[in-house]
Amino acid sequence: MAQDFWASSGFQHLTRTAEGGLAATDDYLRHVLARPELAPPGDAKREEKQLYARLQEKPRLEVGEPELVALGDPDARENWEVFLDFRDRLLTLGSLESVYTDLFRRPQVDLAPPLVDLLAQGIVRGLLDGSADPWLMRAGEMFFRLQRVSVEDGRVLSADAATITLYAETGGFGNLGRLMRQQNTPTATVKMDVLNGENAPFYLLRDELFSFVLDLTPGSKGSQALADLMRRWVGHLRGVDVRIEPLARIADEKWRWHTGLDRDSTAILNALYRGDAVPDEQLARLTTLFRLTFANPADAAPAVAGSPVYLGIAFAEDHTLRLKPQNLLVNLPISGV
After folding, report:
1. Domain range annotation of the chain
2. Which helix (H) or strand (E) holds 66?
3. Does residue 166 surpass a pLDDT of 90?
4. Which of 171, 172, 169, 142 is nearest to 158 (CA)?
């Protein structure tokens, strides 16, 4: 039996729809309520604490305008309006997938970023249900967590940005480490491990620590895992069978279409496509490329006409990477879209 992972996703509280999507249960809504952004602080007004307790008991409870006004604090009211809107979308649209895809059909994304990430995490967790592949799991983290990318001896390494910050502040020893740092007490340096054949079995013991580094060098198991996961993502959310493979570079005189998977790669690929000169330091940030082809040529839009679609990943000037998996939904040349 495959082990559970990413308890923070709330996957254990989701049920499958007849179409294979993930539907929210009352316990899933309670899981969302338990997030630190929603739990009332100790100095919260009695009205907010009472509302929180009532929603924990009955997550589908109708909450009227007078109850929100009674909260008094504008920030508290906004938090609850965000939760109620999210809850109502889940219940009305019927699945995490429907909420996610609907979100990116709108003129602008109107859902709080932590909830967008929670949707992506839940969907990816569903795609990997039953999997025992640590590389797929680690690649999946990129769909909902900010990364920090470095290039070392020709290797492209992606680490969790929040984990790096935490280790820098605490030496990897939590609040105790933070206190020791404040007191200038020396602490041992905690090294984040690059996922490899020897340590991969330990991923499931550390899945919520997000402490493994993923090698995204073209041809690595990490880049191949990310390619496979993107293939599953497109198939699940768009219903289109594609093939995705890592590339070292684009060498195609008939280059017709590309999709950046983050803000920076989009700008770099656009410039290359136009034939503009791209500074070396900017080009060096375009670290990971993929070639996507449609298994059924009829699924591709006429503008592609059998040509591949190139995908790119680039880190920002500060070496952070915010992957945009939604770009695989809205920017692929799919027939009829």
Report:
1. 7-127, 145-215, 221-330
2. helix 65-69
3. no
4. 142
